[in-house]
Design goal:
about 850 residues; mainly alpha; Serine Threonine Protein Phosphatase 5, Tetratricopeptide repeat
């Protein structure tokens, strides 16, 4: 009677396949285990495997891995799910075998890691079957048309393929490839599992190529650089392993291994996908199996098919022909007792086989009953699953709609987040710029306050000086009127012979009159007495308003005059009178202040103009030196900024030179057209207030050029502040306007030199504006290189700082506006006072303010 192979206990199938003999697992034993899994899943398999000493025998564990790998690939789909409960045991076993550095122990550790990775991959991606055979449509469905899913799936395939390649390399490195290891039983035991590895690798390579082309069509190439590098590495390994495997005799009879192309696909060229050829592994029809070449094992003496028993019996003991050992009439050298014993032995074996057969039949009946119950359970489960599937379809549609809504919300959130991040970055940058501006503004306010205090002190002193000057002027006028009246009276008394201009001249006249002769003594003495008395009275009033030295001189002069009259009274003639002391006193009182003022102002104008020219020349030379030094030391953005700033400063120096030359020419025209018969020094002295304004403006221009060069030097060295350079440019523009205004006061409006001066002034204004613009641009360019780090801050912290920054910005903007209005009023008052003091007109003040405004628009 013929029976099915299932009538043998399942443990027998598993024990036949997984044993300690170092030979390859027989295909028929593995096939029986696969058929068993189709009915019972993996529970029966694991029930038998858990009794095996896998942790103590490396060959036994190696053959278990081979059978389990084949079961995962070709067994029932539930095998993977049923086997996950043993994942922890497999992990511990892999770790235990990993402590061995060679032999089957090391290979078992690698193989177990591969099997764990395979189970995890299929549990996470249930659309992939165990044998990895999928169509292109199924591959697209596995990613659910989401580029993020395809990206992650590619990474998982890389990890999967990496484990396969590690086992491939591990087996090859454990074999002596210089010998024909593939024809030995031990070599085939190690090589046999690579058939499953080759099948897995061919599919993983094909799917990886297709997914990478899909990703490159959706994502930038830079994002996928890591994927391409990893694929290149695995491609080289897989190509080499396929080539080495195809040359082994063992694989040539069992599997046709594909060859990969010479070069990997070019994923940056979309058309290269059409050139990709999926590698196909061909397993030829089973004509002869490798186990037919091995020695027949002991457990093969009892096969699962009863009809095979007679055939194997004849093979072992001969046929029932004339040479039959049971033919007692034949003379084969066997005694009767031996034959009886042999018969008894065979009878016992037949009885044992019958008992085992009966046991197999009972086990088969039990298994069939169990299978029928399992079929009923599966049918009920199938009905339930069908119902659940219908529910799942409905829920899936609902979840897809929800997913679409969530994706739209996520996209909106990401856009808002990007916008918020950009706003926060700009707010932080503005805050930093504002902080720097606040610091500079504080310095400017402090400096402005100091200047205001100094200005107030100067104004107070000027007020006091002007009051004193007005008082002196009034007294001087009163004295002049009195002296004039005295002169007129004296003229009338001396018959109009002398016009006396001042008290010292009157003293001089007295001496001359006294020395004229005795004949006039009576007439002169009367006149002298009257004039001396008037001189003493007027000198007493005048002495309170002049320096002490001059007051003492006038007193001495009066005393000498009285002494001279006394001596004249005692002598017979004027010749005996000694008038030397009186002459010396009169000579000291001769007015020399006007000549001294003329010399000082005239020289001072020339000196200040020359000093200003020298300061500008020195500043230009320093700028050129700084520019050459910066080109030799600095690089990149810093060199670019320094060159731009120093170049604008050089242009400003050239414009100031032209302004000074034009101012000199215009002053020459003013002096020549207005001095008349007076000398140039007398003209400057006569117009002292105008001259002082001209000197002050010239000093301001030279000082501004020097200070600006100092500020530029510090900025180039990285020690100064850009704002200082802007303020210096601002002051140069103001000083230039002051010089032009001082020069225009007495100039002819049609003068060509005046037009030239105005043109030079505009050139200076434009040059200062260029300095301010280049400084501001360089400052922004330097500040833009600074980065802000928000990585350690949470969203709440960033939002809180943003609100604080907004409040602070509003407060500071309000305060800045008020300070600007206050500064404008101060400047207006300063221009008003400066214009009055230096003789400006409305037109000159307007030009001054226009120069300031033109420079301010760049700050």
């Amino acid at each position: 009677m013929q029976t099915s192979g299932f009538e043998m206990p399942p443990r027998c199938f598993i024990n036949k396949a997984i044993n300690t003999q170092e030979v390859a697992v027989k295909e028929k034993h593995a096939r029986n285990i696969l058929l068993l899994s189709m009915c019972k899943g993996a529970h029966t398999f694991w029930a038998a495997v858990n009794r095996l000493p896998l942790s103590s025998n490396a060959v036994l564990c190696w053959k278990f891995c081979h059978v389990f790998h084949k079961l995962l690939r070709d067994g029932h789909p539930n095998v993977i799910k049923d086997s996950m409960r043993n994942k922890a045991d497999l992990t511990d076993m892999s770790r235990m075998w990993g402590h061995l550095s060679e032999g089957y122990g090391k290979l078992c550790s690698i193989y177990l890691k591969l099997l764990i990775t395979k189970m995890e991959f299929h549990i996470k991606n249930p659309r992939f079957p165990g044998n990895l055979q999928m169509s292109n449509r199924q591959l697209d469905e596995a990613g659910e048309n989401d580029v993020n899913n395809f990206f992650q799936l590619t990474v998982e395939m890389f990890d999967y393929l990496e484990c396969e390649l590690n086992l491939f390399l591990g087996v090859f490195s454990s074999l002596d490839m210089s010998r024909s290891v593939s024809v030995t039983a031990a070599g085939q035991c190690r090589l046999a599992p690579l058939i499953q590895v080759i099948l897995d690798c061919s599919h993983l390579y094909d799917y990886t190529v297709k997914l990478l082309f899909k990703l490159h069509s959706c994502l930038p190439a830079d994002t996928l650089q890591g994927h391409r590098d990893r694929f290149q590495e695995q491609f080289k390994k897989l190509k080499s392993l396929f080539y080495r495997s195809s040359n082994l005799q063992y694989f040539k009879r069992l599997i046709q291994i594909p060859q990969l192309p010479e070069n990997p696909p070019n994923f940056l060229r979309a058309s290269a996908l059409s050139e990709h050829i999926s590698p196909v592994v061909v397993i030829p029809a089973e004509s002869s199996s490798p186990e037919s070449e091995h020695v027949v094992e002991t457990d093969d003496l009892v096969d699962t098919d009863i009809p095979a028993l007679p055939t194997k019996f004849d093979d072992l003991f001969g046929t029932s022909a004339a040479i039959d050992p049971f033919n007692f009439n034949s003379q084969n050298g066997m005694r009767k007792d031996d034959k009886d014993r042999l018969i008894e032995q065979l009878t016992r074996e037949i009885q044992a086989l019958k008992e085992e057969l009966e046991s197999f039949r009972l086990e088969s009946g039990r298994l069939c009953q169990a299978l029928r119950g399992r079929v009923s359970e599966l049918e009920a489960e199938l009905a339930e699953q069908s119902h659940l599937r219908l529910q799942a379809v409905g829920e899936s549609e609902f979840l897809k709609a929800e997913l679409d809504d969530l994706r739209r919300v996520r996209e909106d959130t990401e856009k808002e987040q990007r916008s918020l991040t950009e706003i926060e970055r700009k707010a932080q940058a503005n805050e930093q710029r504002y902080t720097k501006l606040k610091e500079k503004y504080t310095e400017l306010v402090q400096s402005h306050a100091d200047l205001l205090r100094k200005n107030a002190e100067v104004t107070r002193q000027m007020t006091v000086a002007r009051a004193a000057q007005d008082e002196v002027e009034a007294v001087r006028k009163e004295m002049q009127e009195k002296v004039k009246a005295a002169h007129e009276a004296a003229d009338r008394q001396v018959r109009g012979r002398y016009t006396l201009l001042s008290l010292p001249n009157m003293y001089f006249f007295i001496v001359v009159s006294l020395c004229a002769g005795v004949s006039e003594l009576v007439r002169v003495v009367t006149q002298c007495g009257h004039l001396v008395g008037d001189t003493i009275v007027q000198g007493s009033a005048t002495s309170h308003m002049v320096p002490v030295e001059q007051a003492d001189g006038k007193s001495l002069c009066g005393a000498e005059a009285l002494a001279l009259l006394g001596r004249m009274k005692q002598q017979d003639s004027l010749a005996a009178a000694d008038d030397g002391k009186l002459k010396a006193a009169l000579e000291k009182l001769r007015p020399r202040g006007l000549e001294l003022q003329q010399g000082e102002l005239g020289d001072l104008v020339e000196q200040e103009m020359a000093a200003t020219s020298a300061a500008v020349e020195s500043a230009a030379a320093r700028i050129e030196e700084m520019l050459n030094k910066s080109r030799a030391v600095d690089t990149g953005i810093k060199m670019e900024v320094n060159e731009r700033i120093l170049a604008s400063c050089t242009e400003l120096m050239q414009a100031i030179k032209e302004l000074i030359l034009s101012s000199k020419d215009l002053q020459r025209d003013i002096v020549e057209s207005g001095r008349g018969a007076a000398t140039m020094k007398e003209f400057y002295a006569k117009n002292s207030r105008w001259t002082e304004g001209l000197i002050s403006a010239s000093k301001a221009v030279g000082w501004g050029a020097t200070v600006m060069v100092d500020a530029a030097d510090l900025v180039v060295q990285g020690k100064g502040k850009f704002e200082e350079l802007m303020v210096c440019s601002h002051e140069i523009a103001a000083s230039t306007a002051q010089l032009v205004a001082a020069s225009k006061v007495k100039a002819d409006k049609d003068s060509s030199n005046l037009q030239r001066l105005q043109q030079a002034s505009r050139g200076v204004t434009q040059a200062t504006a260029a300095v301010v613009a280049s400084t501001k641009s360089g400052k922004s360019q330097i500040e833009e290189t600074d980065t802000m780090d928000f990585s350690s801050m949470t969203l709440t912290q960033i939002k809180r700082q943003e609100m604080d920054a907004q409040v602070l910005v509003l407060e500071l903007e309000t305060r800045l506006q008020k300070e600007r209005e206050r500064l404008g009023e101060l400047r207006k008052k300063h221009y008003e006072l400066a214009g009055v003091a230096e003789g400006w007109g409305e037109e000159e003040e307007g030009e001054h303010e226009e120069a300031q405004s033109h420079c301010n628009q760049y700050i």
